[in-house]
Amino acid sequence: MDEKYRMLIDGKLVQASTGATMEIVNPADGKAFAIAPKGSPVEVGKAVDAAWDAQPGWASMYSGERGKFLFKLAELIRKEYDELWRLETMQYGGPRSKTANFDIPVAADMLEWMAGIGRGLSGLTLPVGSSARAMTVREPLGVLGLITPWNFPLVTAIAKVAPALITGNTCVLKPPSCAPLTVLRLAEFAVEAGLPAGVLNIVTGHGSSVGEALVVHPKVAKINFTGDSSTGKRIMSLASSAVKPVASELGGKNAFIVLDDADLDAAVEGAIWGSFFNSGQNCGSCSRLFVQEGIYGRFVERFVEAARRLPMGDPLKPETMIGPVAYKGHRDSIERFVEGAGRSNAGLLLGGERPSSAETKNGFFVAPTIFEECDPKSEFMQEEIFGPVVGLTRFKTPDEAVALTNDTRYGLCASVWTKDVRLGMVMANQIKAGTVWINQHLAIVFEIPWGGCKESGWSKENSTLALEEYTMQKHVWIDLAGTPQTPWQDLIRQ
Ligand code: NAD
Questions:
Q1: Distance from Cα 388 to the centre of ligand 1, integer Å
Q2: pTM (two decimals)
Q3: Burial of 319 (0-12, 13-18, 19+ CB in 10 A)
Q4: Most buried by CB count within 10 Å: which residue of 149, 312, 350, 358?
Q5: What pLDDT is attached to residue 3?
Q6: Which atom of ligand 1 is the closest one to the Cα of 149?
């Protein structure tokens, strides 16, 4: 078992002070293959103190110099590409087709892009008559607490670390407890890159101990969190006692709307990708498919046939599209939702049984599962299930589709499939979500902001807007007249 992994605190790679560890289990075979340190609030305290001490020096450095460290981290990620995609796949089951083609190259690219655009942060200059100039200056916030989920372990960490560091903050990063290994390799890269001690700290452990200690620590200026909406609510309530801001990227229950005039091939391909990429473990997955009555039968037949053909099995194989889900408890939770839908009036079209082939029987696999004629108000259609599991509902009019789409506590993303782009735009305007695609689903590039509304959270990741999450606008007023201009001036001068 690989036990080399250590946390990063104050520039040093360390084990937990108690010696506690966590086994990391490969969900493809259910076997532990690595051991990571299990940190505690003690390590959080040390990490925050180190970040606090390092922050003024880091912030005073020219942003171009800070950027050089990000470029070096990107270089090291690229150098260890083969090890990293394999590790990513083994720790949470993301198929190689995702981890090798997306996660690792994107993590490196994102560091480089942020290292460039983060240098250009500017404020406003405002004339106030002829007697004063007012300006705003974008300043770092201080020490940030960054908390990330397991479905894109390295990419989500980099999406927070890169803007946090380039803007002059220091940070303590808490990766997911079931899949911390690629982020712990980042810890080693930070040391190799010569990143000044305390600038980036990484503490592994459970959310209820390490995560909460980070959220309530008085020296932490802001929490930037990606994860489940219920965890987000808990974090916000803990942070509220200190009026601490929380940037939140939370869950989704996203709609995929197919109108009668849609290009059938494109819609089926889009629905397969949107539903089953990363075995459906994406905040942006389309788990509610609303299909207009005229195309319903043809769409469903094609969609089910295509889903049936998706290669499922060992996620290290290049041809695998459906790997295991991240851990046993998650598999069990998905199965409970499927059982619930099975007891309802929804019709099971595909899946519904635990896979039992030689490659899947020991792991935590869920086969692509499709229900039709789902009640849009049912638990199955309202709760985020976060697996390769989707429900279809038939609708009559575009207005009805918009109403169905908005009938959720989430507001992350949605897509509309139609050849009538004008109608698609009208529907996009009416849908309450952070992203609406027309004839696309799950197209995400980091030059474009990503984030939701409602219980999907309210912050922005990616793009130049992300930089605003990591900085504050300070207003500075300069008097040009040489004497204070106040309404009480005459009174005071008497
Ligand atoms: P999760 O909320 O269980 O855990 C996320 C992180 O929070 C982990 O590091 C965990 O240890 C930590 N945590 C848990 N409880 C905590 C607490 N009380 N205090 C502080 N930290 C705590 O989420 P998950 O299961 O790891 O990830 C899946 C979820 O993430 C889904 O809901 C998915 O939609 C969401 N997600 C959202 C986005 C987005 O951009 N909106 C992106 C990826 C994932």
A1: 18
A2: 0.97
A3: exposed
A4: 149
A5: 79
A6: 26
